[in-house]
Design goal:
Number of helices: 5
Helix content: 10-25%
CATH superfamily: Spore Coat Polysaccharide Biosynthesis Protein SpsA, Chain A
Largest sheet: 7 strands, mixed
Shape: globular
CATH architecture: Alpha-Beta Complex
Radius of gyration: 20 Å
CATH topology: Spore Coat Polysaccharide Biosynthesis Protein SpsA, Chain A
């Protein structure tokens, strides 16, 4: 992947749901096991030969900059992009002017995953798409028979079964041209961009993640990750 794709880690969020842990520490620097969440992200990316990583920062961002000054065993060339105001989960990409390739991998900094990024990128290239959303399979089991009604009358009875969904993982690939749809200096989430791309007929594909993945958004996720890291290879 080296020299074939640009990489952006979005690390500007406040992590309010993890208060009080994030009162004095940005969420990407909260430790899972013996190192910060964001270090797992950068090491995963570096394992694919990538040497240059853009990191968007806002809340307590200087702590993230300081961390990598003394913790950079892969000798990554970091470009830190400071948001003057919160720009959502994708808006800060508009501040980056030095993209070197036509493809951009975007990852949230609060993910713990060992997804094969090379396989993900190759899948994207093979489908000749404009954007990719990596997703997590999610199954909902309905415990009872479904009673379907219309205007108060029962129309059918369906046996209990399960539904499968694709959940957004917070990992994306965009062709550089997709960034034209991001407004300047505006709070704009990745989901806003996806909706705009879809409304403009842009081809977006899905990549189901079957590797380990967890979004560390809530205390229970943080606790689960602390256990999982003991017996998962990252």
């Amino acid at each position: 992947m080296h020299n074939k794709i640009d990489v952006v880690i979005m690390a500007g969020g406040k992590g309010k749901r993890l208060n009080p842990l994030t009162n004095l520490t940005p969420k990407p620097l909260l430790k899972i096991g013996d190192k910060p969440i964001i270090a797992y992200c950068t090491e995963l990316i570096a394992s694919h030969g990538v040497k240059h990583i853009n990191v968007t920062i806002n809340y307590l961002g200087e702590q993230i900059v300081d961390y990598f000054k003394t913790n950079n065993k892969h000798q990554i060339d970091f470009n830190f992009i400071k948001e003057a105001q919160p720009l959502g989960t994708i808006g800060a990409l508009k501040l980056i002017k030095n993209f070197k390739t036509d493809y951009i991998l975007v990852m949230n900094a609060d993910l713990l995953t060992n997804v094969n990024l090379k396989a993900l990128f190759n899948h994207f290239l093979s489908k000749k798409a404009d954007a990719l959303i990596a997703t997590i399979p999610y199954q909902v089991n309905v415990p009872h028979d479904l009673v379907e009604t219309e205007e108060g009358y029962v129309t059918s009875l369906k046996a209990k079964h399960s539904y499968s969904y694709h959940l957004n993982s917070g990992i994306y690939i965009f062709k550089k041209s997709c960034l034209d749809f991001i407004p300047e200096n505006t709070f704009f989430d990745a989901t806003d961009l996806i909706k705009v791309l879809l409304s403009n007929g842009i081809k977006i594909i899905n990549y189901p993640i079957h590797d380990y993945w967890i979004d560390i958004g809530k205390p229970k996720d943080f606790k689960k990750a602390q256990e999982d890291v003991k017996h998962t290879k990252f």
